[in-house]
Design brief:
The structure is a single chain. Helix content is about 30%, strand content about 30%. The chain is of the alpha/beta class and about 350 residues long. It folds into two domains: about 1-120 and about 280-335, Rossmann fold (3-Layer(aba) Sandwich), CATH 3.40.50; about 130-235, no CATH class. The chain is globular and about 60 Å long. It starts with a strand and ends in a 14-residue tail after the last helix.
Length: about 350
């Protein structure tokens, strides 16, 4: 499990450390670096064991196809590169990316500084798209997976139904907690329109409505189904989920977080990091799992919500989201953070 990630000179994260638990919720203003933090974790996790040239290709593909100097924060940090240092149980890995000016264009070089690797946790970074989740997906002879935008969901669910190993039952039971009228999923063999290849379509059954094509289902229901399916997918030990509250009713957000905690109890190897702007979703989280990101003149800083000097008093009368809404983010960069009141 990853325990901490330190960012140096990576976009808005000039010098910031993110401590992670089994479930970690990142909150903060727009532009503070929540998505940047997920991106940095993803790039480093995917770079484990790679050579420099492969790391450079990975960064260009994942982060920016443009010259990489734009990744370097302005200010007092070293202006010629960035560093992400990741620590955890069985993992100690730092990836440094140095940018050297050549006649044309900039040159990016990835260098591994140190590694003590038990094994590389497998990362799934979700940026789910309802339209893609609802689309037919091709059949495969391999173990089917769903990608970060949701492609392959119908094939994955068809495989789980055929496997009869209770994973689909768990997904459907969890969905009923989030969407009370949900009944079950249906997959049907069909040609994929874009290619003509054999594949599967997805329908969803609801009480009082019946069987509905996935393309006619609400965004919130599709996003919840995509997330819950990813948690039961083999091979993913680290799930990064941006905008976890998107299109979900406040009650559904609360139920979703409850389910995440239950899934984490069933899967001790799993770790989830999510971002949100939702007071309701944060209310459902444990206070010690909330990380507040605040912008300062020196770049974004990250603190546990419980590090607020009056956290005990606030949390005695308010839930975590209510406390965050009340205290905001400006306290994160103040020097007395973490000291006894």
């Amino acid at each position: 499990m990853i325990e901490s990630v330190t960012f140096k000179n990576f976009k808005s994260l000039r010098d910031a450390t993110l401590e992670l638990g089994r479930l970690t919720a990142l909150v903060g203003a727009n532009g503070c670096g929540k998505s940047t933090a997920l991106l940095g974790v993803r790039v480093v996790m995917e770079s484990l064991g790679m050579e420099s040239d492969s790391i450079r290709a990975l960064v260009t593909r994942r982060v920016s196809p443009a010259p990489l100097e734009g990744l370097c924060a302005a200010g007092p940090s070293p202006a010629n590169g960035w560093l992400i240092d990741l620590r955890g149980h069985g993992i100690e890995w730092a990836a440094e990316f140095v940018i050297e000016r050549t006649p044309n264009p900039f040159k990016s070089i990835g260098r591994v500084l140190k590694t003590e690797l038990g094994r590389a946790d497998r990362v799934l970074s979700l940026r789910l798209d309802p339209g893609i989740l609802a689309s037919p997906s091709p059949a495969t002879i391999r173990e089917p997976t769903m990608d970060d935008r949701g492609a392959g969901l119908a094939t994955l669910l068809h495989h789980l139904a055929a496997a009869r190993d209770e994973r689909l039952d768990s997904i459907e039971a969890d969905m009923r907690e989030v969407v009370p009228t949900f009944k079950r999923v249906y997959t049907t063999s069909a040609a994929v329109p874009s290619t003509g290849h054999a594949g599967f379509t997805l329908d969803i059954g609801f009480e009082g409505i019946g069987r509905v094509p996935a393309s006619h289902v609400s965004e919130g229901s599709l996003l919840a189904l995509g997330l819950l399916s990813s948690l039961h997918m083999e091979g993913a030990d680290l799930v990064l989920f941006d905008d976890a509250d998107r299109a979900l009713h406040p009650v559904a957000q609360y139920r979703l977080v409850e389910i995440l905690y239950k899934v984490l109890e069933r899967r001790p190897e799993l770790q989830v990091v999510l971002t949100t702007h939702s007071l309701d979703l944060v209310n459902a989280c444990r206070a010690e799992d909330v990380r507040v990101m605040g912008m300062t003149p020196e770049g974004t800083k990250i603190r546990k919500l419980t590090e607020h000097p009056e956290a005990a008093r606030w949390l005695d009368v308010l839930r975590p989201g209510e406390m965050w809404s009340s205290v905001g983010e400006s306290w994160v960069g103040e020097s007395w953070v973490g000291e006894a009141p």
